[in-house]
Amino acid sequence: MIQKCPHCKTDVIFSRNICPACGHPSRDEERGEATYLGEAKTDGRPVYNQVMETQMTARQRNGRIVTGLICGAIPAPLLAYSAVSLFWLRPDWLVLLGTMYAAWLAYHLWYGRPWARWLGAGSTLLAGCAGLFEAVVVLRSEVAMNAVQIMAYVVFSLVYLWCAGQLARSPDVKEFLVYQFKHTPDF
Ligand SMILES: [Zn+2]
């Protein structure tokens, strides 16, 4: 645990009651609470993670990472598919529409809209199941089997199912989204 040395006022990790920065001995009750970035020398640059360090709980910070992964994972395969199909000038309008929907959903999810969490959980659950079903269909079809296609279906389906599980059940994600919702102005 990081604490503040009562002698040199540095935030340090104490071992055996001796400050590793100045060597001054102090008992646990004499030490102050660490201010983390309060004393960090930033040379006037803004500290990106100051809010996270000082205001968010460990659970919210963990939820932030998981939510970031989810917001990236939801549009990623659709975006890749759209990019490739546009490059070959064969746009798949259904996938393009899906990409826009995924980007819209990820945006609202990140800013903690309560409905976005459930819409996201439902959408990813549906997409995951549909992807696995599609993989089985491709696997069972008599036409030449495309291993890459099947693997892509299975991998992205599992990712979507993981997203659904995290959104629906993870207390970390829930707490972060509540925090985000409180700290986002209406728009
Ligand atoms: Zn010290």
Written account of the structure:
This protein is mainly α and 187 residues long. The chain has two domains: 1-41; 55-182, no CATH class. 61% of the residues lie in helices and 4% in strands. It contains seven helices and three strands; from the N terminus they run βββααααααα. A hairpin with a 6-residue loop joins β1 (2-4) and β2 (11-13). The longest helix has 27 residues, at 114-140. The radius of gyration is 24 Å and the shape is elongated. The site of zinc ion has 8 residues, from loops.
Features of the shown structure:
187 residues; mainly alpha; 2 domains; three-stranded antiparallel beta sheet; 7 helices; 3 strands; 61% helix; elongated; binds zinc ion
Number of strands: 3
- Measured on Cα atoms, how large is the radius of gyration? 24 Å
What portion of the residues fall into strands of 2 or more residues? Answer: under 5%
Order of helices and strands: EEEHHHHHHH
Helix content: 55-70%
What is the total number of structural domains? 2
Strand count, sense and barrel status of the largest sheet are: 3 strands, antiparallel
Any chance you could write out the topology, listing elements then pairs?
Layout: E1 2-4, E2 11-13, E3 32-33, H1 50-55, H2 58-73, H3 76-87, H4 93-110, H5 114-140, H6 147-169, H7 171-182
Antiparallel strand pairs: 1-2, 1-3
Helix pairs in contact: 2-4, 2-6, 2-7, 3-4, 4-5, 5-6
Bound molecules: zinc ion (ZN).
Zinc ion binds next to loops.
